[in-house]
Amino acid sequence: MAGLSLKITNRSRKGLKGLPPSIELPDDATVEDAKKAVARASKVSDHNRIGIFDPVSKKTIKDRNSLLREQSEVVKRGELLVKDLGLQIGWRLVYMIEYLGPLLFHPLFLTLRNQFYPAVHPFLKDYLPYAPRASDTLSYAQQAAFAMITAHFVKRELETMFLHKFSAATMPFAFVFRNSFFYWALAGLLGALELYAPFSPAALAPDAPTPLTYFGFFLYAFGEVANFNVHYYLAHLRKPGETARKIPHGHGFGLVTCPNYMFEIIAWIGIIIVTRSPSLLLFITIGSYYMYIWGWGKEKTYRKEFGDKYKKKRFVMLPGLL
Length: 322
Known about the structure:
Layout: E1 4-10, E2 22-25, H1 31-42, E3 50-53, H2 72-77, E4 79-84, E5 88-90, H3 91-124, H4 140-162, E6 170-172, H5 175-195, H6 211-235, H7 259-275, H8 278-306
Helix pairs in contact: 3-4, 3-5, 4-6, 5-8, 6-7, 7-8
């Protein structure tokens, strides 16, 4: 079997010390195999630190299980760009840390609500549009908020631990703080701070569920189940041993590029209808912006990689809107 002889070029000025001018790899070598070969040659203990880049686009080749021979510019030019990405942390652990924030903040504020809010209310009362809830007990909407948000992030943690597969094994350690801030600060700290206050819209909502509340529950349940269904489908799209990317079909993929994002938004709309929370509205609005960017990136990747085999989508996550 013919192998691959690839020139190795440093991606950064500092570069990797002891980097060989070229490496020899078998014809069936993956991106992961190239990382390991470069790491051995340059005496880097953790091969996940090695970044492999396309020699033309200069973009990272993210799918570590893809075959090098399928990277057209790498084969055409016989060259790999490499870079030391620094200290790494596993993607799975990053996601678990991200989703942990709301699971910590919501029980915390729920536990301290009868001590914390009476202490801060005198400083805020002149600026609040509503008087506080008369009863010290949680409203129906506040109880529902805690249950729905906790269930959502427990689901995300379990999917991360047991379902999701990651094309890249690790990311730079410093990024974990940037990635976690969104969930910890908005869905966690700000969301909990507002939701469980006795003067929040959720606190002042009717104590009995209304038809609108039941509609919110329906959207939430539908969104969560459909989102899990897409995640399960994607996790099993490639059979064991397969490395080639596939075009997903059904499960909402006929409507948009990323139906998992669509169902995620539907679930959060359900939560917002039940809780009337402006903080959570801010959270999902900002989240939708980033999901749109990621979704459009996936759409462009599908178009480039599969050409005429792929049916182009006009909308990446919300039919008729985005």
